[in-house]
Every structure is written in C-alpha cells, then in structure tokens.
C-alpha cells in the first residue's frame, strides 16, 4: 500500500513539494484536483499517489534547477490536456489588430526588457519566464523548432505599440525558437495587474520562424497566469502602483480567461523573490491534430490599467 505523503511546515503554512496546500487542515491526498495538477510532481511522486485522483496527470520532465532559488526548485510537469486556446487580446502586435512587430528585424530575441532599437526600457521586478512546448501528436515529444512569440503589459499595466505614448515602443515583446528540449526563455519584468484581469503573459506558438509572416499560422494562442503569492509581493513595490488593488478585485476563478478551470494548466511555477527577481516556467502541450480556436483580436474598449484609466481592457 502506498504511503500517504506528509506536508512540510513552512512560514506560510503547510506545503507539499513547495506548493502551499489549498486546504491546510486536510491531508495532501484530499486537496482536490486543482492542487494535484499544479503540484510539482516527480515520477516517483505520481507513483506514490497512484489511485488517489491524479491518474490523469501526464508527466514530462521539464526544467533544470533554477539558479535564482536556493531551494533547487524544478518546473512543473505537464498536466493532461492541450493548452487552452485563449484570446490574443486587443494588443497582440502580430498584425491581426494594427501594428505588426513580427515584421521588425530583431524581434527574435531573448531579452525583451528594451525596445528593439534600444530607445526605451521597461521598469519593474526582473522576471525570466520559460515555456516548454510539447507535441501531443508525437507522444509529447519536445516541439523543437517552433517559434514562440510572447508579449505582456508593463508594470504600469500598459502595452507597447498601443498605449498612449508607447506607440513607437516595442519592449516586452519577442520571439524565441524552441531548442531540442522544446524550451524557449525570455528575460523581462514582472507584468502589472490591470483592472478586470488576472496578471498574465500572452503567447502564440508558430510552426517555425517563416510562419511568423501571418498571425493566422499560429498553432496555439494562450496565456500564462502568474501565481498570486509572487504577484502580491511584487505589487507591494512603488513601480506597480494600483496593481495590488486590482489584484484584490479578481481571482483565477472569476477571471474572464482563466475562470473555466482556474488556470489549472496555465498557472506558472515560480521561484525567486522580489529582490533578486523571479523565474516562471510553464509546460505548453500543443495538439496539431486539432484546429487552433483563438488568436483573433477583439475590438479595444472597456477599462483597465492600475490607475483605472482607459488603459488595457480585459483580454
């Protein structure tokens, strides 16, 4: 009979393999499905939990030890199911709603903290975020060679190329090509939280670099959710004025994008702190046997932005 895992006591409360328990007074096996699929499970951990509700978790080894964390944390393993198709939002910068940064020379880059021409730099808490793209049609093999375009708002909740005064700015946008492990990595800053949306990072997956010429070529369009504890810590800083209040008014369950399942397969695993910076990782399972159902940009409108002005709307 398998041994029931024991939680570890931390200053924030009981945790299992680095993940705080959703229900601190219950055993690890009684935390529920959302906790199961978010937990940093190893292959041995899944075997130990066999028969108690995590049989649907499909494993994929993901990332090496994070150099920013003394705890030696690893990235989350792949949860069952394709990454959900989500809206690209009103500010994709991929040509589907006005500006097209994918046509700019220099867009293939890992450091997206500055504009491509170096004329502007985004402020905020340092963040490295990494995606590992897996090919579901090929038994979850690393999807080497796919091009991943990622973009997100600034610490002030504004989007380059669209927000007032940032029309000629191209920071917080970039493309990377997946390596032999299916991984891409970006150096950036932690995104702010604007009104009506949970903090997030947008991304599109293209079959290859040549496919970037048309946003309709994307084989997946989705968003990565930032974990609440790290977000709350970041938003205590002065560069993120208004984000803490906006975060307090939304949950993963109420968010218009992540609400279907509270971002179960989109919630990043994160290490680090607000002083030294963070590293966020996410496994992205893409099924090329199904058609991508997102990517179109809705019309702009609505309210958003930490200050409650006419900044980015939900999307």
Account of the protein in words:
This protein is mainly β. It has two domains: 1-57, no CATH class; 60-286, Aromatic compound dioxygenase (Protocatechuate 3,4-Dioxygenase, subunit A), CATH 2.60.130. It contains four helices and twelve strands, in the order E-E-E-H-H-E-E-E-E-E-E-E-H-H-E-E. The strands form three sheets. Strands 4, 5, 8, 11 and 12 form a five-stranded mixed β-sheet that branches. It has a four-stranded antiparallel β-sheet with strand order 7-6-9-10, with no helix packed on it. The protein is globular.
In short:
With 315 residues, the protein is mostly beta strands. It has helices at residues 33-38, 43-48, 228-234, 243-247; strands at 8-10, 13-16, 19-20, 126-135, 141-142, 147-151, 173-177, 183-189, 200-206, 220-225, 269-273, 277-286.
């Amino acid at each position: 009979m398998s041994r029931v895992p024991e939680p570890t006591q931390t200053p924030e409360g009981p945790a299992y393999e680095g993940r705080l328990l959703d229900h601190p007074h219950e055993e690890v096996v009684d935390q529920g499905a959302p906790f199961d699929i978010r937990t940093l499970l190893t292959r041995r951990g899944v075997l130990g939990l066999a028969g108690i509700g995590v049989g649907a978790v499909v494993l994929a080894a993901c990332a090496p030890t994070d150099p920013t964390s003394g705890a030696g944390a690893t990235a989350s393993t792949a949860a069952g199911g394709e990454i959900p198709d989500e809206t690209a939002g009103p500010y994709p910068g991929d040509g589907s709603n006005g500006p097209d940064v994918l046509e700019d020379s220099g867009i293939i880059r890992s450091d997206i903290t500055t504009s491509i021409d170096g004329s502007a730099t985004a402020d905020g808490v340092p963040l490295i975020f990494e995606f590992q793209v897996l090919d579901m049609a090929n038994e979850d093999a690393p999807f080497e060679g796919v091009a991943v375009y990622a973009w997100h708002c600034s610490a002030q909740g504004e989007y380059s190329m669209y927000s007032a005064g940032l029309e000629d700015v191209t920071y917080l946008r970039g493309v990377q090509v997946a390596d032999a492990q299916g991984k891409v990595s970006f150096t950036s800053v932690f995104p702010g939280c604007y009104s009506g949306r949970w903090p997030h990072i947008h991304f599109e997956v293209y079959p290859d670099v040549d496919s970037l010429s048309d946003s309709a070529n994307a084989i997946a369009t989705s968003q990565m959710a930032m974990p609440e504890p790290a977000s709350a810590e970041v938003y205590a800083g002065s560069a993120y004025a208004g984000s803490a209040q906006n975060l307090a008014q939304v949950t993963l369950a109420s968010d218009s994008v992540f609400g279907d399942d509270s971002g179960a397969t989109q919630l990043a695993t994160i290490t680090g702190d607000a002083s030294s910076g963070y590293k966020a990782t996410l496994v992205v399972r893409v099924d090329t046997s199904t058609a991508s159902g997102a990517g179109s940009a809705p019309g702009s409108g609505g309210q958003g932005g930490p200050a409650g002005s006419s900044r980015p709307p939900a999307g």
